[in-house]
């Protein structure tokens, strides 16, 4: 290792973790550089993500997503450090950062190779999405979207919009909108209509060798395009979506991957209240005896 990059949340108090990172790199004779996005305070000399051996993302899932996109061209490993609740993409809490860095330096980590959605528009390639892209109505008028898979029409829907998500992103906005959860390693992505007004179009799971096209017919209020939670400006009204594997590398410090235990640990999957209550009663009885 020669160089470590850091990307910080613009407002969260990540100073303790930043000091740990500075001392850790100094002790090992490594250069620490900041991967800037233009929103955060200056904490280190500027540097390029592609020149780093590791990027530490201090903040939460949004910060990790920014780091993954910054490092996507070279797939530089990204270590997500959570402040607040343990995020979906973060590997350690702030107070565990030194131990996580030591494990990375010793080679005791697992590479999570994340697929991404390539999004094209009228003007060519527009962006990449690790989690999802969202087309949402703006204002009171419904958004009409023609959804096709490999040029075969699936549905013309009118409603709040649509989410197209990777298997990783299926546990985010898509699931909140009623979409299915894609198990880790599923070679597919999912299209989830949002509050469709009439008609019938259940969430559609699409094999990763197919292309989805979205033709937009906006009302007078227009629409918004969000990619991985960040709004993207465009005048396009037709978008293509295709899946590509191994777009970015996320550092993992255990072997749970993005499997079901990982989802349960983070509270994205929970048992029925009746079952949970039965377990609590049994535990209470056991302790009472």
Structural overview:
- The chain has 289 residues and is α+β, with helices and mostly antiparallel strands.
- Helices cover 20% and strands 37% of the residues.
- It has six helices and 17 strands.
- The protein has helices spanning 15-27, 61-70, 97-105, 173-176, 260-265, 273-288; strands at 3-8, 31-34, 54-59, 78-82, 92-93, 110-121, 124-129, 132-137, 143-149, 152-159, 161-165, 188-194, 204-207, 211-217, 223-227, 230-232, 238-252.
- The strands form three sheets. Strands 7-6-17-14-9-10 form a six-stranded antiparallel β-sheet, with no helix packed on it.
Please state the CA-atom Rg, rounded to the nearest Å: 21 Å
Q: Could you describe the largest sheet, including whether it forms a barrel?
A: 6 strands, antiparallel
Q: Quote the beta fraction.
A: 35-45%
Q: Report the order of strands and helices.
A: EHEEHEEHEEEEEEHEEEEEEHH
Overall 3D geometry?
globular
Proportion in helices? 10-25%
Total number of β-strand segments? 17
Q: DSSP helix count?
A: 6
Low-pLDDT sequence parts: none
